[in-house]
Design a protein that fits this description.
single chain; 244 residues; alpha/beta; Rossmann fold; two-stranded antiparallel ribbon; 23% helix; 18% strand; globular; binds pyrazine-2-carboxylic acid; binds zinc ion
Amino acid sequence: MSRPSALQRRSFLLQSSAALLAAGTAPWALAADALKPDDKSALIVVDVQNCFVPGGTLPVKGGDEVVPVINRIAPAFANIVVTQDWHTPGHASFASSHGGKKPFETTVLKYGNQVLWPDHCVQGTEDAALHKDLKLPTAQLIIRKGYNKGVDSYSAFEEADRKTVTGLAGYLKARGIKTVYVTGLATDFCVAWTAMDARKAGFNVYVIEDATRAIDLNGSLEAAWKQMAAKGVKRIQSSDIAAA
Ligand code: VGL
Ligand code: ZN
């Protein structure tokens, strides 16, 4: 259901073949859709933390299933960035900080609408630690976000006030990165916002669907894929990436 349609996939293959023909390469000489991340590409692993897997404070269904997929593709990447949702106690995104509000209801904060969540990913707790089976020894940067008590940050680039930046765009640009492959949790919140902000910052962006899992609150997953597509985010599967 959440996989790209046959038509989407076919059009991707046709585009890839056309590009190869234009480049003078016989399309049948390569797996038609194999993507080979180069040294100007980075893998971004979003919020694969205890809080977002079953047993955590804001569990995403099947959240732990992204771990082996990410571990498998990681060796294909020379550059890897990891993010952590990293909230203060009493954070503004917690329902418990708003008298009478329950998790998954919404409220309006200074910067606009905010979904209210269970207390989750509190700085320095075991709940906020990266999943223990994640094997990313070559990862170069861990970027933490959501640490300003009054402002949420789904995106790894920019906080929800849409003014405060995390510095990730500057870091990636300073290192010559042009393309990012986004994975992790959750597809419809931190992965989607990170992918869309990466487009806004001028990167070529892929989301590796089977390396993500969603919260899917009131149709948010479907909406997120539509918004990402409209912004030029490309939806792929881990099998589209050439093995290292
Ligand atoms: C996230 C809700 C609240 C996420 C973080 O990582 O997608 N979702 N905080
Ligand atoms: Zn959060």
